[in-house]
Amino acid sequence: MAYPIVGATNLTSSVTAVDCQKQVRSWRLLRALMELLIPTCNRTLIEDNQEKCPQNYHVPPQTTMATTLTGTIFGYRHGKVSFCIQTNSKSTDPILLLELAVSTTTLAKEMQGGSLRIVLESASTSPCPGIGYSNISSNLLSTPVWAMYCNGRKVGYAIKRRASKSDLEALRVMDSVIVGAGSINGKELNNKEDDHEVQLMYLRARFQRVSGSANSQSFHLNDPEGNIGQELSIFFFRSSSP
């Protein structure tokens, strides 16, 4: 099976590094992931009448506070999708790992419009029993629970979690991929079954991390020339205490 990817190198039976050409733009990464998922997807889009996102965020300009990191969006076809930030593609200690509120297929459908904006607002209370919560944290990204908005609509809560054994195995298999989108079969992830449903879908790229303040950070998908793009942005913010 040939996997949709970005760049000059084709993925065939296993994950390989992607030779990313300068003329390839970041929207092709999103398109590659959609082509993997949308043809077999029969789930509905998020309803338009759901709660709207607070419109108090924007794409920040390049600043001296910006750094480039490796970002990976991954998940099984009908399972919840995760977002992982690492210092580089080979790092075994993620800076951040979030389980998002939507499935992989739903997220791919949201990308059909050509852009994806995820806003994560520090939740005032934890909706999940057993998950601690603190209103005050010295590190914004240490917040355990986030209200999640996808393209302006509230879709539930994102949960910060520690990397599991299966997460680390998936990241290990992908460590040669710098920029690309594709799938990993069950055998490569040491799953007993190797069928259509157990394939892990992923999108990996360089993300620009921009720190606006102690209460706001954002991650923006870079194009291959290193410029901040508008196609995929993830915003983290918390409201100031009254």
TrEMBL record:
InterPro entries hit by this protein: MIZ1-like_pln
Question: Which superkingdom is the protein from?
Answer: Eukaryota
Q: Which GO terms describe its biological process?
A: hydrotropism
- Give one Pfam hit by family name: DUF617
Kindly give the PANTHER family that the UniProt entry links to this protein. PROTEIN MIZU-KUSSEI 1-LIKE (PTHR31276:SF10), PTHR31276
What is the protein name stated in its UniProt record?
Answer: Protein MIZU-KUSSEI 1-like
Q: Which organism is it from?
A: Quillaja saponaria (Soap bark tree)
